[in-house]
Amino acid sequence: MPNYSTTTAPFTIYPGDVAVAFNAESPAPPQSSIQFALPSFTGAQPENARTVAWQTSFAAAPTAVGVALQAADQDTDAAYAAIDSSTNVNGERRQVLVRARFLRARLLSQTGGGAITITIGA
């Protein structure tokens, strides 16, 4: 997938969709994925939040890794902040409550191992 870009409009992740932030890639850390938009949401969850699941997996387990799920209310690089992170070298699936309009994954560091895949589900 392409890197984060301010010139390309983000794809929207609707409830039930799964987006691929990195698809069996070997980006040079630190590297952000493309951004994804979340549609307006109203519901029973507190403060119009939604649960987002994200998953990391590797072609071969690295010795060390740092990955973050980042969110922003405005789609500008400086607006993104980490809302969850993973250092699990075996990969894992995590869930987090999100109150933002945009999401992206960021590979902070990786030592050894194979290509990384990160999916985000709304």
Please provide a written account of the structure.
This protein has 122 residues and is mainly β. It has a single domain, classed as Jelly Rolls. The protein has no helices and ten strands. It has strands at residues 11-12, 18-25, 31-32, 36-37, 50-58, 64-72, 81-86, 92-98, 102-111, 116-121. Strands 1, 3, 4, 6, 7 and 9 form a six-stranded mixed beta sheet that branches. The protein has a four-stranded antiparallel beta sheet with strand order 2-10-5-8, with no helix packed on it. A hairpin with an 8-residue loop joins β6 (64-72) and β7 (81-86). The model has no long low-confidence stretch (mean pLDDT 89).
Question: What is the strand and helix layout of this fold?
Answer:
Layout: E1 11-12, E2 18-25, E3 31-32, E4 36-37, E5 50-58, E6 64-72, E7 81-86, E8 92-98, E9 102-111, E10 116-121
Parallel strand pairs: 1-4
Antiparallel strand pairs: 2-10, 3-9, 4-9, 5-8, 5-10, 6-7, 6-9
Briefly summarize what is shown.
By secondary structure, the protein is mainly beta. It has strands spanning 11-12, 18-25, 31-32, 36-37, 50-58, 64-72, 81-86, 92-98, 102-111, 116-121.
